[in-house]
Amino acid sequence: MPGARAQEAVTVSVFVQRFSATPRGARLARRLATHRLDLWAVPYGSPASDTVALVVAELAANSVVHGRVPGRDFELRLTYDRTAGLVRVEVSDTHPGRPETPASPAQDPADAGGGRGLLLVEAVAASWGVEERTGPGKTVWALCALSGYAHASINPCRLHA
Fold this sequence. Notes:
Number of strands: 5
Strand order of the largest sheet: 1-2-3-5-4
Mean pLDDT: 83
Largest sheet: 5 strands, antiparallel
Order of helices and strands: EHHEEHEE
Oligomer: single chain
Radius of gyration: 17 Å
Helix content: 25-40%
């Protein structure tokens, strides 16, 4: 057929879901993230899936513990760019407070009851940050490189919404 164009392959997939700002909501966010990755051919239990699951778990837990506003949910957004080999994890809440840049762990880890979530995210993600969002609150994001992609070659702005 003259003038017909071939359909371009989809290389970016997006998943967005709101969750109750409760520990149960945070667990569900992690479980649905790994399920969605599996549907996108990033299998359960793979290093990439485990990395994204850890990042989602930590950011969702922080949103529930530190960003909870009574009666308000938090939102999880996953953006998978197959071409770049990146998954961008975003967790948005309506609390105006912004997380601080993580400090190095205390001398004696047994003394601290928590506060290591962003250190874990910093350790496993290619990059992470905090942005303003439309409406009240903020979005905490992290870029996770899938296997075979070097962190040094990642352009953190590529998946920047």
